[in-house]
Structures are given as C-alpha cells and as structure tokens.
C-alpha cells in the first residue's frame, strides 16, 4: 500500500460470504470409534467399580441400589451415546488456505485454522490408536493454546501426508 488512495475497506454482505458448511468433510477412520469406546469404557469403569465397592462396604444404605444404579446406568448410556453420536459428527477438510475441523455431541464446534496462523505441527500416536495404526495431528497456532487444533483418528500414513503438506504450506509463506 503506497498511499491512502490505495486503501479499501468495502462492506461484505453476509449473504455473499463463503459457506464453510458447504465443504465436504472427510470422515475419520472407522477404527477410531473403537478407540473412543475403549476410552469410554475406562471412564465408566471407575464409577462402576466405586458403586460396586460401595454396595459391599456400606452396610446400611437402603437407597444406594435403587437410586445409585439408575444414575450409574444413565451416566454410562450418556457417555457411550455421546461417543457414538460425537464420532459421526467429526470430520475435517483441507482447503487451499486453511483446514476445517468439526466435532461435537450436544453442541457442534467447527474450527477453521488458516495455514498462515500455524506455527508448528506435531504427529501423535497414543497407545490405543497405535494398536489400530491410527495417529493424530496437532496444529499449534499463533496466540493462546485455545486456538490449537487436534485431529485424531487418522490412518497413520494419511496423518503423515497431512503433516508434510501443512509443513510445506507454512514454510512456503
């Protein structure tokens, strides 16, 4: 911009903005649902074990079983339903200038990270995903960590290709 005459700041009408929801998202690998169910089983095992222990340890608790068991079952149902429904809503897309990721169960969150905001990319292989040959990529952005993006449940070869692509895009800026 050489002079003030070159400056432009025209209004953009909302009906003319690009629709990110029109992007066709790639689904995560189906085996990632198994990984998420393993994590859910671990998360529900702890309260279930505590409930069973309480039944045997508390001698006079007449309401423990009729009230505690339905609460535990509702909790377990909510956790597993959340995992299954949340998995079906996850997806990602790589576009020319950014990456889009959608996730959520009760509320759906869509994150769009422009490549020029990415400072670092990491590949993660946790224990259970690694058993299914899955990995995740983590995009670290300029700013605070609430702007970072993690996409798990990718086949390892695709995660590596995405990491290499994004690394070349941010180095070419």
UniProtKB/TrEMBL annotation:
Pfam families, alphabetized: bPH_2
Ranges of residues in domain YdbS-like PH: 88-165
InterPro entries registered for this protein in UniProt: YdbS-like_PH (IPR005182)
Residue ranges of the TM segments: 36-57, 63-87
Keywords: Membrane, Transmembrane, Transmembrane helix
PANTHER family assigned to the protein according to its UniProt record, in alphabetical order: UPF0699 TRANSMEMBRANE PROTEIN YDBS, UPF0699 TRANSMEMBRANE PROTEIN YDBT
Protein name: YdbS-like PH domain-containing protein
Source species: Flavobacterium aurantiibacter
Organism lineage: Bacteria, Pseudomonadati, Bacteroidota, Flavobacteriia, Flavobacteriales
């Amino acid at each position: 911009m050489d002079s003030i005459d070159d400056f432009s700041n025209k209004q953009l009408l909302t009906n003319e903005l690009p629709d990110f929801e029109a992007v066709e998202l790639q689904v995560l690998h189906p085996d990632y649902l198994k990984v998420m169910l393993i994590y859910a089983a671990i998360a529900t095992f702890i309260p279930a074990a505590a409930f069973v222990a309480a039944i045997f340890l508390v001698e006079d608790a007449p309401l423990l079983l009729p009230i505690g068991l339905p609460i535990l079952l509702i909790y377990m149902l909510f956790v597993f339903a959340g995992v299954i429904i949340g998995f079906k809503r996850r997806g990602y897309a790589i576009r020319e200038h950014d990456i889009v990721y959608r996730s959520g169960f009760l509320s759906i969150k869509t994150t769009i990270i422009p490549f020029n905001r990415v400072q670092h990319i990491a590949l993660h292989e946790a224990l259970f995903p690694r058993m299914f040959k899955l990995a995740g990529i983590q995009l670290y952005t300029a700013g605070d960590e609430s702007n970072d993006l993690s996409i798990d449940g990718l086949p390892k070869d695709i995660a590596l290709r995405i990491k290499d692509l994004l690394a070349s895009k941010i180095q070419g800026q």
